[in-house]
């Protein structure tokens, strides 16, 4: 029986040596989870004490400050819906997460600037805590920071988990379901722990070290979140956006309207109309 020659061995091995490294996999998961976890620490940590910041530093009435915070919370809840639609239909998940990360950082940086520079806030008496009404530029800076953070949250939270699943979804892998389940478990455990850190450590920093440090730490964490996400950019699987979901929805509405007068055939057994799938 002949043994394979050295040339034959090299022919067999050479394709494996020259094959490009595959993208995705578990090596990208820590960067994606770190991006989401740091974003949660930064954003969730700003909410509990925000009403104190608006009433004490901006002289807002409690009702007005609560209205601002409720509007901000509503925008944070609605933005991921729009973000998911844009990511799946036009932009793609990678770009949506990256876009959201940058905008969230810019929003937190603007909020930190309102604490750093006295000119960004209305003048308040140190003893009576009576403040002058905030000017239009001061409110514009404040509301711009809230708006950027809401848009950024919509970009990250709408696509981060799905983007992580894209890195691990190997249909030919017999353990694909277990792999995805493990990722989802780690993902939810990470954001839960991040939320716990946010409402304890970040709030503690704001209460004891002041607003400059209390808003500066979330901004730094958001910057680290952006760096973490883009460090693994060469290794990500970046799926392209599919056909617009809105287009398909409109097509269904148009087809339903055009076929509204079609009579369905009658079932002989029940004497009721039934739907027959076209051949």
TrEMBL record:
Residue ranges the record marks as coiled coil? none
Q: Name one GO cellular component term.
A: membrane
The entry's localization annotation reads: Membrane
Tell me, what is one Gene Ontology molecular-function annotation carried by this entry? transmembrane transporter activity
- Give the matching InterPro entries: MFS_trans_sf, POT_fam
Q: How does it sit in the membrane?
A: Multi-pass membrane protein
Keywords, A to Z, come to: Membrane, Transmembrane, Transmembrane helix
Q: Which domain of life is it from?
A: Eukaryota
**Predominant location category:** membrane
Question: Which Pfam families does the protein's record reference?
Answer: PTR2
Any transmembrane segments, and where? 63-87, 99-120, 140-165, 186-205, 217-237
Q: What SUPFAM superfamilies does the database record attribute to this sequence? A: MFS general substrate transporter (SSF103473)
The entry's family comment says: Belongs to the major facilitator superfamily. Proton-dependent oligopeptide transporter (POT/PTR) (TC 2.A.17) family.
What is this protein identified as?
Proton-dependent oligopeptide transporter family
The root-end lineage is: Eukaryota, Viridiplantae, Streptophyta, Embryophyta, Tracheophyta
């Amino acid at each position: 029986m002949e043994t394979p020659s050295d040339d034959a061995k090299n022919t067999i091995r050479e394709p494996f040596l020259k094959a490009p490294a595959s993208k995705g996999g578990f090596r990208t998961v820590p960067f994606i989870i770190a991006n989401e976890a740091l974003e949660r620490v930064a954003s969730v940590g700003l909410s509990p004490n925000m009403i104190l910041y608006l009433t004490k530093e901006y002289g807002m009435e409690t009702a007005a400050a609560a209205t601002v915070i409720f509007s901000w919370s509503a925008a944070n809840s609605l933005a991921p819906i729009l973000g998911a639609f844009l990511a799946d239909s036009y932009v793609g998940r990678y770009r949506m997460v990256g876009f959201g990360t940058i905008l969230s950082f810019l929003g937190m940086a603007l909020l930190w600037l309102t604490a750093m520079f006295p000119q960004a806030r209305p003048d308040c008496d140190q003893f009576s805590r009576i403040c002058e009404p905030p000017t239009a530029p001061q409110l514009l800076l404040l509301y711009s920071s809230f708006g950027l953070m809401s848009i950024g949250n919509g970009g990250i939270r709408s696509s981060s988990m799905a983007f992580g699943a894209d890195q691990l979804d190997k249909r030919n892998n017999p353990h694909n379901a277990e792999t995805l389940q493990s990722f989802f478990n780690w993902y939810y455990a990470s954001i839960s722990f991040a939320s716990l850190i946010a409402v304890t450590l970040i709030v503690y920093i704001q209460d004891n070290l002041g607003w400059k440090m209390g808003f500066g730490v979330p901004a730094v964490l958001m910057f680290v979140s952006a760096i973490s996400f883009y460090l693994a950019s060469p290794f990500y699987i970046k799926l392209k956006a599919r056909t617009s979901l809105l287009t398909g929805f409109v097509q269904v509405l148009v087809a339903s309207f055009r076929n509204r007068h079609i009579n369905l055939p009658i079932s002989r057994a029940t004497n009721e109309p039934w739907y027959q799938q076209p051949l």
